[in-house]
Structures are given as C-alpha cells and as structure tokens.
Amino acid sequence: MSRPTPRATGAGSPRRSRRLTGLVTAACLALGAALLTPVPADAAGSTNQDAYRNIGQPDRAEWMWGVASDTPLSNMSIPGTHDTLSVHGGTSVQTQEDWGDGADTLTAQLERGIRAIDIRARVSGGSAFTIHHGVYYQQANFDDVLTKAQSFLRAHPTETIVMRLKSECPYSGAGTFECAHDPKSVTPATVRSIFAGYVAKYPGLFYTPSTSGSGRAEVPTLGQVRGKLVLGSFDSVDSDGYGIKGFNDRKEDHWAAETVAEKWGYVKGNVDQARSGRPGDMYVTYSSASNAPFGLLPSDYAGGWKLGNENGDIVHEEPGVNVQLMKHLNSSTGRVGVVMTDFPGWGLVNAIIDHNADNAVKGGNRTIWLVNADKTYVNSLYGRCMVRGPEFDSSRTGGLVTQRECQSSPPSSHQWGAEKPSTYDGKGYYWIKASNGKCLTVPYNNGTPPGSGTQLFWWDCETRWFSGSQLWNVIPTKLATATGSRPAYQFINNWTGLCLSMDPATATTAGGKVTQETCSK
C-alpha cells in the first residue's frame, strides 16, 4: 500500500528570527475521455503565512515515493528554491529562511519537500567552488552542497534532486555588487574543469548523462534518477553539453519585473502553459524577483507589502506572488513543472507537490481495477476477473455479476468493454457492457439508491436517459508495480456515487459477489 504524502501544518525553527520586511502577513487513456476529479489537498494552505517564510516541519522527506517511477521529470511538479543558499548579505540579497551555514539550510529545505535547487558558484583559489549571491559569500562551499545532498539521498533513496548550477561571477569587468573569480584569469573552461573534479570526487552521486559535458541528456524518468543528483543546467560556462534537454527552453525568469502584479502575471502565465503543455516538455518557473536595493526587495515580491499613512492606517496592500500562486494551484490540477521560489511556505510547497496527483501510484485495492487487452476486468487487490454470472431466468434479460479466477484464454463471459451510450447523451459517463451486449447495472431497489455491499446485475441497456444505475464515471489512476506503474481505473456509479468493488467475504470463492462500495482515496 502506498504511503500518504505527509503534510506540514506548522512552522519549524530557523536559526534566528528576522523582521518580515514589507510582509502582508481528463483523459481516460484507452477508454476515452472521462471526468477526472482533483485529489483534495489535505491541510492545504490558505493564508500568506502558509505561503511565505514558513516552510514548516521536516515531514516531506519522501514525497516522491508515491510518484510512479515511469514518470518523466518533465511531467512532474517539483518545488524548488531560487538562490537556494542565499541567507547572508541583508534584505537586498536574502532569498531563503536561514537554517544555518555549511549548507544546513539546504538540508532543512530537502527535509521539507524542496527537490530543485539553484546553486551559484564562485571559483576560489583556482580549484574550488564557494557559494555566492553576487559579491556576498553565503558561508557554504560546493563540497557542503554535495555532502548534504549525498547524505539526504542515501537516507531517502526514493527521492531525486534537480540542480541548476551557475558560474555566478562575470569573467571580466565585475561590478560593485558582483563577485570576481579567484584568480581573475579564470575562464569558462576552468569552471568546467573544476566541476569535473567534483563529479569524480563524488562517484555515484550525479546522474551521469547530465554531467558528461558531451551533450544534454534526454529527460529521464523518476525511476532512472531516484537517489541521484540531476544537473538540470550548467549556466554561464560557454557550453551546451550539460544538463537535461529543454531545461531552459520554457523558462519564466523576469527577475526585474517592476511590480508584484507584473511578476505574478508572468508566473501564472508560465504555470498555466505547463498545465496545458506537452508532457515531454520541461517548464521552469522562477517566482522570484528583485529591484533591490532601490526598489522592491525579494521578500516584497514573495510575501507582499503594505503601505500605511501617518495614522497607522493601511492605504494600500499588495499580496505577494507566493500566496497568489498557492491559491491558484490549490484550485487547479495538472503538471506545473519546476517552480523555483523565494521564502516558500509549507502551503506553497504542498500545493506544488499536490499537482503530481495524475502520476500518483496506489497499491492494490478492491475498488481499483486493471483493464487488460483481452477485455478482462481484474480486481487489483484480489486478482480475480469480473464475470457475467448466471441468468435470473430463462428470458436471459439479466443476471448476477460475479467473479472467478482469471484464465489465460478468457471466455466471453469474462469480457467487458466501456463505451458511450449510443442512443442518448451520456454526459461523459459510460456503459460497462458485457460481451452479450448487456450493461453493468446497480439494482433499481424501488428507486432508492442501494448502499455498499449491494451485488451488481447485468441487464438490458437503457435506450434513453432514464437512470444513472447503468452509467459509470471512469477515473484513471496508476497501480504500483515492481518496475514502475501501470494504468488502472475506478468505476463510479452515477446514481449511487459508489465504486465497482468485490465482496471481501466471498473474494476467494468462484462465483463470489461483485459489488459497489465507498470509493477509496
């Protein structure tokens, strides 16, 4: 059985508190189109405090466990941090909660669900990387980053980390707020060579195709990179030989937007494009922006700001990007790609994670069914086939629906198919028809919807919109397998709202009951 994604519902404890400057506290695969209801978010965030500078408790260290291994990274929704270790240099520079130096801040983020990181490196002494945001050293080195990432992945091998790595300093003409490589003779080739040394120093840590330097890797599946650090891109090194294909092709990074509203428009636009885009295309959205030191700070864009008058009255209030994004994601579904944030709150992180619902895997359950190419419907918990059982009488107008052991060459009584009603508008619902053309039916019960445990019938299909007792909503899901997942389905009756199931008391008996019951989540 799959473990539920844990939920953070409270703040953690950063190293030290800080003044909050400016804070305003579907498709049904081979069966055809069907309505896919979103998975409700448990403990979803609703306030600015949930979305901003409150990343919560360390209880999301293994959320990727529940995502199918055959899911490409491009088809996932991955919470990340912009300038992941930028905690020093003042409000103009800081972009994340401060959980400690030496990349302790990275560990805190990973334990709280962050899986995409943005690391900015300066060459120091001609042979090593130190972590900077512009001219400001962030009290961490690249060894710290890799050591902490390796420790996390060893402890949580179901996870992966996607890293954007950038050579932070210009190679000449560094400005007042820009760093300078040491020595100043450093070239892009120098940076690439130093990086290769780190890859060799940490064997088995990196996803090798992304670090070869000979060309960008094809987008891997989650199963290929569990336990690995994936280089998404290696920027400002004069080479297109690193990272993943398409990583920066659909990127939103208007980092100098003049207003919060302008930045939010860019963010929402890219996230919505990801929701409707092709599954094989990478989308990366930076929700961060800054016009510091003379304009809005990173915290103003992320957390919003208020303007008061001399009487202490609020005359203008601007909600931050974080809370607007969280609320937008809580009311929508579909892949949103990699989302790199400043000062994320637990509610925003959860909202991004929840957009992996389409790729969530489940263990066997009696309300989940496998549909095979031989037209058999197999219960995922018991492995038994749904069968058109004995007739009620000699008229052969109907009979019981039962289950039996599946056969390698299934007889016609074991075969079913989903099709839209041919004589009226089924409003998106399906008939489930036996091989003799009869429909899977919930008993009429004198017009009162019967409850859980009711055995189902096969019966003549209605030729007009008469009752929902023969109409089924087909909900696709995924069933965990040893190597990944496979498509599976829940069938929800239009009339009763209950799911196609099996009677556990007769589950191992030939001719046992096929029933309806409350749908599992």
Automatic annotation (TrEMBL):
The keyword Signal applies. It catalyses: a 1,2-diacyl-sn-glycero-3-phospho-(1D-myo-inositol) = 1D-myo-inositol 1,2-cyclic phosphate + a 1,2-diacyl-sn-glycerol. Residues 1-43 form the signal peptide. Its EC number is 4.6.1.13. It is an enzyme of class 4 (lyase). Transmembrane segments: none annotated. InterPro entries: PI-PLC_domain, PLC-like_Pdiesterase_TIM-brl, PLipase_C_PInositol-sp_X_dom, Ricin_B-like_lectins. Residues 70-234 form the Phosphatidylinositol-specific phospholipase C X domain. PANTHER family: PTHR13593, SI:DKEY-266F7.9. This is 1-phosphatidylinositol phosphodiesterase.
